[in-house]
Structures are given as C-alpha cells and as structure tokens.
Design a protein that fits this description.
The protein is of the alpha+beta class. The chain has 3 domains: 236 residues, 2-Layer Sandwich (BirA Bifunctional Protein, domain 2), CATH 3.30.930.10; 50 residues, no CATH class; 92 residues, Anticodon-binding domain (Rossmann fold), CATH 3.40.50.800. It is 31% helix and 30% strand. It contains 13 helices and 24 strands. The chain has a 7-stranded mixed β-sheet. The chain has a 5-stranded mixed β-sheet with strand order 21-20-22-23-24, with helices on both faces. It has a 3-stranded antiparallel β-sheet with strand order 5-4-9. Strand 4 and strand 5 form a beta hairpin. The chain is globular and about 80 Å long. The structure holds adenosine-5'-triphosphate. Adenosine-5'-triphosphate binds next to strand 13, strand 16, strand 17 and helix 9. It is an enzyme of class 6 (ligase).
C-alpha cells in the first residue's frame, strides 16, 4: 500500500487533502491522472448501467434534501456507528471495526483498553450519527438544520413519481445516479477505502414484488461481471451473501462484492441489497404522496459503490512490479492515457514533426500524451507506471514506409503498424 500511495502522489493520481495546511483527515484530492481514472470508472459504470440498457434512466438530484427525507428514510434514527471514546486522550474508535475489546472482570466490571494511550476505560459504546449537519439560511436563529446526504439513493426515491410521470419507463426499471455523499466516519483510513467525502454510483432498480429474488441474483452477477470485464483478477474478488443477522431489518437480502485488500484481506468493495418496499413505503407515509406503480409499491434492488473505493480496487489490482520497474496494468478503457507518442530522437526535426502531427491526429480520437523527455526506455517506463497501454514511436523507418512501432505495456512487445491503420488498430483494442 505504501508504494501505491506514494506512486499516486508522485505521478498525480491522488494527493492528501489540504496538504499545505497540514492535511485534513479523511479527505483526498484527485490529481490530473486520478481525475481521468475516476471519470473513466464513472463512464464505464454509466455505460453499463444506463446507456447500454433500455430499462434504466439517469438522475442528478441535489445534495441537500428536505430534513423530512432523513426522518422518513430512517437515517436520523439509525444511521449510526457504535462509538467509544477514551476518557484520557479523547481518541474515538469505531466499535467492531477498530481493535477494541471489552473485557469483563469480577472486580472491575466491564472495561476496555485504549489502543492509543493504554488507559483503562469503562463504559459501553454509544450510537454516533454519521450525517454531517449544516444549516440553510443566513440568519443563525431562523436557519433550518439540514444534512449533507450520506448516500444518493434517497434523491432517487423522492423523485420516483417525477420520473414515472415524465418518462416512459415501465416496470421493471431503474434510476441511476452518480454523486457525492458525506459521512462523518468515526475512523477513516486505508487511503481511499474509508473517507468522509466520496462519490457514489448507485442504482435503484424497481421491480414487481415476487420477481425481486430473480432480479437480485441478476444484479449481483451483473455487478461482479462489470469488475471482471474491466480486468480485475478473478481470484481477488468474490460475491458474499450476508447472513440475516448482519443486514438491515427491512432488507430482504444483502450481498457484498468483496475484494482481497492488501491492508485487511477480504472486505467490502460494493453492496447489493434487496431493500423490499421499505423506502417507497416510508416516503409515502411521511410525504402523504402515494409512491406506487399500478397500485402496488415496487420492491427495489440496489447496487451501490463508492468511486474512490472502486478506484482503489482497480489501482491495487493493476499494480505490479517486474524487477525494479512498476507496471500499472489498468484496463485500457480505464487508463488515463490510451496512447503515448514519441519521436525516437529529439534533435531530428523531420522525425519530431512527423511524430507531433501523428500525436495531434490520435489525440483527436483518444486521450493521448506527448513525451520527449529522456531516452526512449525511460519514457516507456514512465508510461508503464501510469498505466498507458500503448506507446507509439516514430523512427527513421517511419520516414521511409509510414509505419511506426507500437509497444504494448504488459508484454513489452513491439509491433510495426502502418500509420493509416493506427485508428482502427487502437479502436479495435479498446473494444
Ligand atoms: P463500510 O462499512 O464498508 O464502510 P457501508 O456498509 O457503510 O460500508 P454502504 O452504506 O453499503 O457502506 O455504502 C455503499 C458503498 O459506498 C460501499 O460499498 C463503499 O463502496 C462505499 N462507501 C461507503 N462508505 C464509504 C466511505 N466512508 N468511504 C469510501 N467509500 C465508502
């Protein structure tokens, strides 16, 4: 992980948030390459979830909702984690996640030992609400207390009727949304894994009760396949059905896609839940609006994943070393740059001209990058490290026969390809 975090900073994927002010815990900023990678992940998700299907439409709801939304959804009452605080150093821990054990002693009763200052503490964990509060309005006394959304899903449920009334969707259908969510996590950490502000990719897929189990199975498989199709190592990812006692009381079933993380072993990458009719029923009750379809309340299947957590999985999965070289074997569709273009030598004007014009023509079709620093070997390694799948070099032979070498990141093999064929060559590979 240290190597990945350092690579991410050095090459401009991810920077610590507010770094020049000493950092802000649980926040990270995406650099130029991280921004491209995240955009590509979102694009692939949107493509497979919305644009390539006939039964899912998109939505982009606001981050701030009416406070009643969170009452109805149950977040005010129960979007909590068990918090335990040391009476001496005041460090806070998430019970069940951080390494805290409660001991039982005949004389002392219940106690626990603070992992930071080793103080003996008594007391049980208390519920800590993870929603960030903010206020609406400029006058403090009359301001309304609001929450930053901890998930995008509720924005979908409250627009259920709007979507039905303004589009031609018929059940089964889904509404998908990508947007920021905020959670005041007790403990953040493991790089992008658990942060306080993150983008989420969520789908609420509405189905007729009775068909929900089938759709649940379908979406579990769809979502697992999405990762596999984007190159995630099959032995590092799996679907896990959670036992009844670990899932929300209203859930008809919850599964998770787990990844074998280097810092904790198997753990959640994405959640997929059969939420039954809980959300629509709750919002019907609280809003007084009848959120139904053909006189029944649909059930909903919800796949939900954080962009950053998915990005971490793709980065960890792609990271490899060959000798002292680092190769980031990102799927070409996720790679920030698809092609790097070089001139074999920098001081031969004719070669540089030719390479530059090829670069501009490729760039009009794919994200391409120009590099003229150092020698050709160093340029290959620099591109390997940021996951660029192909490097194109214009050399002396190019001036004779209009062919270039295309070097493959993963095999280091070079192939001669005619310039006129390059567009189709890459288009085919990116398919
Ligand atoms: P966990 O307990 O693993 O943090 P959760 O069960 O609270 O997650 P859900 O509410 O199911 O998470 O959220 C759906 C998805 O959103 C998660 O699978 C994960 O990909 C992402 N996610 C949730 N919390 C965070 C966070 N604090 N930082 C980054 N991603 C998160």
């Amino acid at each position: 992980m240290e190597k990945i975090v350092s690579l991410c900073k050095r090459r401009g994927f991810v920077y610590p948030g507010s770094e020049i002010y000493g950092g802000l815990n649980g926040t990270w900023d995406l650099g130029p390459l991280g921004t491209s990678l995240a955009r590509n992940i979102k694009h692939e998700w949107w493509k497979s979830t919305v644009t390539q299907r006939d039964d899912v439409v998109g939505l982009d709801s606001s981050i701030l909702h009416h406070p009643k939304v969170w009452e109805a959804s149950g977040h005010i009452a129960s979007f909590t984690d068990p918090l335990i605080e040391c009476k001496k150093c005041h460090n806070r821990f998430r019970f069940g996640y951080d390494p805290i054990t409660i001991y039982l002693d005949k004389e002392k009763g219940k106690y626990w030992i603070c992992p930071t200052c080793h103080e003996n503490n008594s007391g049980e964990p208390r519920d800590f609400n993870l929603m960030f509060k903010t206020s609406l309005g400029s006058v403090e006394e009359t301001a309304t207390e609001l929450y930053l959304r901890p998930e995008t899903a509720q924005g979908i449920f409250i627009n259920f009727l709007n979507v039905i009334n303004s589009t031609r969707v018929t059940i089964p259908f889904g509404i998908a949304q990508i947007g920021k969510g905020f959670r005041n996590e007790i403990t953040t950490g493991n790089f992008l894994f658990r942060v306080r502000e993150f983008e989420m990719m969520e789908l609420e897929f509405f189905v007729k009760p009775g068909t929900d189990s089938e759709w649940f199975i379908t979406w579990k498989q769809e979502r697992l396949n999405w990762y596999l199709n984007l190159g995630v190592n099959k032995s590092k990812i799996k679907l896990v059905d959670l036992p009844k006692e670990e899932i929300a009381h209203y859930s008809k079933g919850t599964s998770e896609i787990w990844y074998d993380w280097p810092f904790m072993g198997w753990g959640e990458l994405e959640g997929i839940a059969n939420r039954g009719d809980y959300d629509l029923t709750q919002h019907s009750k609280h809003s007084g609006k009848y959120l139904v379809y053909d006189d029944y309340t649909p059930y909903v299947i919800e796949p939900s994943v954080g962009v950053g957590r998915a990005m971490l999985a793709f980065l960890v999965d792609a990271y490899s070393e060959v000798g002292d070289r680092v190769i980031l074997k990102l799927h070409p569709r996720l790679a920030p740059h698809k092609v790097a273009v070089f001139s074999l030598v920098a001081n031969k004007e004719e070669l540089v001209q030719k390479a530059k014009s090829l670069y501009l023509s490729l760039k009009s079709q794919f994200p391409a990058v120009w590099d003229d620093r150092g020698n050709i070997g160093k340029r290959y390694y620099a591109q390997d490290e940021i996951g660029t799948p192909w490097c194109v070099t214009v050399d002396y032979q190019t001036l004779e026969d209009d062919t270039v070498t295309v070097r493959d990141r993963d095999t280091a093999q070079q192939e001669r390809v005619s310039i006129s064929q390059l567009d189709t060559y890459f288009a085919q590979k990116l398919k």
